[in-house]
Amino acid sequence: MRRDDDYIRELLLEFEAQEDFLVVIAPSLSMPLEKRRRQYHVELLCDAGLMCPVGRGTYRLTHQGHDFLDAMRDEGIWSRTKDAVAQSGGNATLEIVKTIATGFLKKQIRDRTGIDV
User: Fold this and answer.
1) What tens digit of pLDDT does each residue of 24-69 get?
2) Do 41 and 89 belong together in one domain?
3) What is the separation, in whole angstroms, between the first and last Cα of the chain?
4) I need a labelling partner for 22 at 20 to 30 A (CA). Which of 50, 51, 54, 71 fits?
5) Model's pTM, two decimal places?
């Protein structure tokens, strides 16, 4: 199964929008493919330090996860980030994706406020 950065972003937005900070994904060998895809991407988010397990099948966003989400929350920034990755050959690590999105976010702040961050 391939990592899907759009799906990762969707999951992070979904998890952040929940009222409770806990995300429950009960693993099972008989899960349908879509639930296995969801579980796999949550595990990738844990690998990247964007989420962490707090119990069996229970996860939460980390501080890094919120920062990652803040960098790519804006649809325009996300679109430009994906375009930049595509122009560079279409492959990038999650850390590079975050760096690109953060760069666009910094530029947006500088353009709107005149403050260099």
Assistant:
1) 887 777 888 888 899 999 999 999 999 999 998 899 999 999 999 9
2) no
3) 37
4) 71
5) 0.85
Same domain, 52 and 98: no
pLDDT at 26: 76
For residues 15 and 38, membership in a common domain is answered with yes
| Same domain as 58, residue 102 | no
The whole-chain average pLDDT of the chain stands at 91
Query: CA-CA distance, 55 to 58, in Å (whole number)?
Result: 5
Which pLDDT value is given to residue 27? 73
Closest to 13 (Cα-Cα) out of 23, 3, 24:
23
Domain extent for 80: 68-113
> What's the total number of domains in the chain?
2
* Of 4, 2, 16, nearest in space to 67 by CA: 16
Calculated CA dihedral for residues 93, 99, 105, 106, nearest 10 degrees:
-170
Rg, Å, the chain Cα set: 15
